[in-house]
Design a protein that fits this description.
It is a single chain. With 305 residues, this protein is of the alpha/beta class. The chain has a single domain (7-241), classed as Aldolase class I (TIM Barrel). The protein has helices at residues 24-36, 56-70, 85-97, 118-131, 150-159, 173-184, 200-205, 218-229, 233-254, 257-265, 283-296; strands at 7-8, 42-44, 76-79, 102-105, 109-110, 114-115, 136-140, 163-168, 190-193, 210-211. The longest helix is centred in the last third of the chain and has 22 residues, at 233-254.
C-alpha cells in the first residue's frame, strides 16, 4: 500500500431473501451499487452487516463472494472480530489469503461480562499482528463494553507496525481522536470515525481522515470528508449541514435497517428483511426515511429502477 486509505469506507449490508436465506445475487448488486456511489473502499461482515446473526459457514460464503465480486475495484476491509484469539487469528489469516486489504477488529468480548482486560487486549492484538501482514483497524465502539484507554491504543500503535488504523465511535470521539493522534500520530495511517457520521465534522476537525458510515448515502457524505481534507472546511460544513437530518434520522431511528429499506425501494435488493430477533422498520419510520431519501436523490434510492 503506497498511500494510506482515506475517505469513505461504508459497511456492506447483508441482504436476505424473504425466508431469511442469504441473497447472494442481491449481495453482488449491493456491492455494485456501492462502487457506483464512488466509495473509497468497503467493509464487509461488520455489525451493520448483521455479522452477529451469521453462521461461520455464511461468513465464509459472504467473504469469498464479496472479495471475488469486488475483484480489486476498491479495497475491501474484512471484519474478523471474535472473543477467541485463536479464532480471530484464523479469520484474519483467511481474509488475507483471500485478498482483503485490511481487517477490522473489535477488542475481545463476549456478552456483557466476558471481556478482556488491558493485558488481554494487548496480547490479542500482538497475536493478530504477528499472524498477518495487511493493516489492522481497531474498532473502538460501545458495543464491546471494553474500555480502550488512549494510553493502551497508543502503546498498541507504537508496538505493532501493522495496527495503523483506528475507528473511534465512543462518546467524545473527537477528543479521543485528538489524544490518540497527539500520542501516536506518526504510527497511525488512518484515524477514522463511524456511527453513520453523526459527529463527522467534529471528528474531521480533530484529525480524522476517513469515515465508516452505512451504505445509504455514501456519495453525499464522501464530499464532506474530501473537501475537509482539501482544506475547504466551509464547503464541507455546508454539505454536512445538508445531510445531518438524514444522518441523525438514520442513527437514532433506523440503525442498520435504514440502508436495506432504501436499497429495497431503489431496486438494489428484493427484500429488506433483517434476521430475528431484530424486527422490521416501523411503517411510519420507513415513510419518513423514504421522503428524505427521495429529496436528497440518493443513488441507492434509484440505482435499480
Amino acid at each position: 500500500m503506497s498511500e494510506p486509505y482515506k475517505g469513505i469506507f461504508p459497511i456492506v449490508p447483508t441482504p436476505f431473501t424473504e425466508d431469511g436465506a442469504l441473497d447472494l445475487e442481491g449481495q453482488k448488486r449491493v456491492l455494485d451499487c456501492m462502487i457506483d456511489q464512488g466509495v473509497d473502499g468497503v467493509c464487509i461482515l461488520a455489525n451493520y452487516s448483521e455479522q452477529f446473526l451469521l453462521s461461520d459457514s455464511e461468513r465464509e460464503t459472504l467473504q469469498t463472494l464479496c472479495l471475488g465480486h469486488v475483484a480489486g475495484r476498491v479495497p475491501v476491509i474484512a471484519t474478523c472480530s471474535h472473543f477467541s484469539t485463536q479464532v480471530a487469528v484464523a479469520r484474519c489469516t483467511r481474509a488475507e489469503e483471500q485478498g482483503a486489504s485490511m481487517v477490522m477488529m473489535m477488542p475481545p468480548y463476549h456478552g456483557a461480562l466476558l471481556r478482556a482486560d488491558e493485558y488481554g487486549v494487548h496480547e490479542h492484538f500482538a497475536a493478530l499482528s504477528d499472524a498477518i501482514d495487511i493493516p489492522i483497524m481497531i474498532q473502538d465502539a460501545p458495543l464491546s463494553g471494553v474500555a480502550l484507554s488512549v494510553d493502551l491504543l497508543v502503546r498498541i500503535a507504537m508496538e505493532f507496525p501493522n495496527v495503523t488504523y483506528f475507528k473511534i465511535e465512543t462518546p467524545g470521539t473527537a477528543d479521543k481522536l485528538r489524544a490518540l493522534i497527539a500520542g501516536a500520530g506518526e504510527y497511525i495511517d488512518g484515524p477514522f470515525d463511524g456511527e453513520e457520521g453523526i459527529t463527522l465534522m467534529a471528528d474531521l476537525d480533530a484529525g480524522a481522515t476517513g469515515t465508516m458510515t452505512s451504505a445509504m448515502a455514501s456519495e453525499q457524505i464522501r464530499p464532506i470528508v474530501m473537501q475537509h481534507l482539501a482544506g475547504n472546511r466551509d464547503v464541507a460544513a455546508i454539505q454536512y449541514n445538508r445531510m445531518l437530518p438524514l444522518i441523525n434520522f438514520e442513527n437514532r431511528q433506523c440503525g442498520l435497517k435504514g440502508t436495506k429499506a432504501v436499497m429495497k425501494e431503489g431496486g438494489v435488493i428484493k427484500s429488506d428483511r433483517v434476521r430475528h430477533p431484530l424486527t422490521p422498520l416501523p411503517s411510519h419510520t420507513r415513510t419518513a426515511l423514504m421522503d428524505m431519501a427521495r429529496e436528497l436523490d440518493l443513488i441507492a434510492f434509484s440505482w435499480g429502477k
